[in-house]
Amino acid sequence: MASIGQDDPFLEAQADLLSTLNVTRSLFSSYLRIRSLASSASSPELAQARSELETNLQDLTSDLQDIVDSVKAVESDPFRYGVDIDEVGRRRRLVDEVGGEVEDMRDELKKVSVGQNKPGANGSALPPPSAFDPDAPEGDDYEAFEQQRQVEIMQEQDEALDGVFKTVGNLRQQADDMGRELEEQHEMLDELDTVAERVQGKLSTGIKKVGWVIKKNEDTASSCCIVVLIFVLILLLVLVIIL
Fold first, then answer.
1. How far apart are CA 230 and CA 224, in angstroms?
2. Which tops the pLDDT comparison, 15 or 25?
3. What is the reported pTM?
4. What is the pLDDT of residues 36-70, one digit of tens each?
5. Is the separation of the CB atoms in 64 and 57 below 8 Å?
6. Are the C-beta atoms of 21 and 60 separated by less than 8 Å?
7. What b-and-e string marks burial along 109-147, b requiring 16 or more CB atoms within 10 Å of the CB?
8. Cα 53 from Cα 33, distance rounded (Å)
9. 94 in Cβ contact with 30 (< 8 Å)
10. Could you give the C-alpha distances from 52 to 39, 46, 160, 173, 175, in angstroms and in order?
């Protein structure tokens, strides 16, 4: 097969188309499931699923149109883009298959049947469990059971989310407490540094005064006075530190 040129518009359009097609298929399956369980065509959940599917179908149709334009451009002059006849045929088949799938989805959207799992609603659908119980009352018991089950599942999910929120709240509270403790310890360290600096300054001043006294009184007679002054100075410093 010949190499495909970089200016071939099919490559980017094909990637967008396949991505949108996968999302639309998932939404289509979800829509069919919700429609089969819904008890009324006016169900909010069914309306939301239908709206999401229609929106994606519009996007898919837009991407498909880009693919169609790309295929037409290649068909008009395949050698210009380095594409052989077999590749052109493959691209045409892709367009036809995706187009047919889109049409099938649109046809399914036109149907308004609801509760396909009811007895007699669809010949291939299985009857509800109550159909096998001769003592079970007739009516919408199966639909009520399904709705009740969905409500219980939603309640369980809400409880799980509440637990997660509580855990996150506890972790945040612990982080706040640790932050406050660190701030208090930082303030205590600052106060201790201030006190240490003040005491160091007083000691330096006292030592200078003692040295000055020693220089002025170097004779033996004044030695006793110097010793007494040093003792009194040390006692005063100790009292200042304690108080």
1. 10
2. 25
3. 0.41
4. 887 777 888 888 888 898 898 888 888 888 788 77
5. no
6. yes
7. eeeeebbbebeeeeeeeeebebeeeeeeeeeeebbeebe
8. 13
9. no
10. 20, 10, 27, 40, 42
